[in-house]
Amino acid sequence: MDTPITLIEAITQALAWEMRHDDSVVVLGEDVGVNGGVFRATAGLQQQFGPERVLDTPLDETTIAGLTVGMAAQGMKPVAESQFDGFMYPMVDHIVCHAVRLRTRTRGRLHCPMVLRVPWGGGIRAPEHHSEANEAIFTNVPGLRVVMPSSPARAYGLLLAAIRDPDPVIYFEPKRIYRQYKELVPDDGEALPLDVCYVLRDGDDITLVTWGAQVKETLEAADRLAEDGISAEVIDVATLKPLDFDTIAESVAKTSRCVIVHEAAKTAGFGAEIAARLAEESMYDLLAPVERVTGYDTHIPLFRLEMKYLPSVDRIVAAAKRAVAAG
């Protein structure tokens, strides 16, 4: 495609490509067919591929998850949608008790090539259960990949890779940046590798590690730091589970300092896992304690304080300057 597209349009483009080239791919969820999804990620797909491959389901997340696991076990490649991140919890039973255990339970005879697409995170002034940042819950589940793109190009390539993966993938979509900016995304069917961190900016003085919607603020913070003579390397984790820790460790070996930025609450957020790994494996490379810039240990406030809850450029810059000063 020669016209720049948004992240949400890149998702639609990836789904259409894979459905054209693989008849086993089906899409299902609440309102994904006739209405094209609550965020219009599946707009036009039912018209292209018919109601047998783009299925409107009942308003029942437990049933959606069960159907998805059953389809995957029988050789299909279902891509299900949870309308919002906070609606995932009824799906957990099928994900944790069946989807991720199918390969080991059957000693490799069956596997579960399913994708659960989840609009994720805050910043859109939505009500309760519509602004969760719950990725850490799922990174603790063995046998489950957890992926979160931060740009249209990565959304396209990572979704293709997720659909082609033989095991279950949770594909979190940062809804705050669904339509925030555009970029050219060739519709060529080229997947990006999973399980890889992306170095978005080279730097020598400090490593900034983040994912999802916070990539934007983190890159802006790196620009601000550069104005003060601090060279920041920015890493987009992209696949949280399994984590490409080597890329983070190599960066910290060069910069000797690290700030981890994420939207989720601080306690037991995924940033704590990265910090623990750095303490275990990169302690002697660090000149300063690892800093975390996160959401707070409360539910995201509605609505006036919502943006105060989310990590800001100012908070990221302040944490980076503390780390540089400490070392």
Automatic annotation (TrEMBL):
<dbReference type="Pfam" id="PF02780">
    <property type="entry name" value="Transketolase_C"/>
</dbReference>
<dbReference type="GO" id="GO:0016491">
    <property type="term" value="F:oxidoreductase activity"/>
</dbReference>
<keyword id="KW-0560">Oxidoreductase</keyword>
<dbReference type="InterPro" id="IPR005475">
    <property type="entry name" value="Transketolase-like_Pyr-bd"/>
</dbReference>
<protein>
    <recommendedName>
        <fullName>3-methyl-2-oxobutanoate dehydrogenase (2-methylpropanoyl-transferring)</fullName>
        <ecNumber>1.2.4.4</ecNumber>
    </recommendedName>
</protein>
<dbReference type="Pfam" id="PF02779">
    <property type="entry name" value="Transket_pyr"/>
</dbReference>
<dbReference type="InterPro" id="IPR029061">
    <property type="entry name" value="THDP-binding"/>
</dbReference>
<dbReference type="InterPro" id="IPR033248">
    <property type="entry name" value="Transketolase_C"/>
</dbReference>
<feature type="domain" description="Transketolase-like pyrimidine-binding">
    <location>
        <begin position="5"/>
        <end position="180"/>
    </location>
</feature>
<keyword id="KW-0786">Thiamine pyrophosphate</keyword>
<dbReference type="InterPro" id="IPR009014">
    <property type="entry name" value="Transketo_C/PFOR_II"/>
</dbReference>
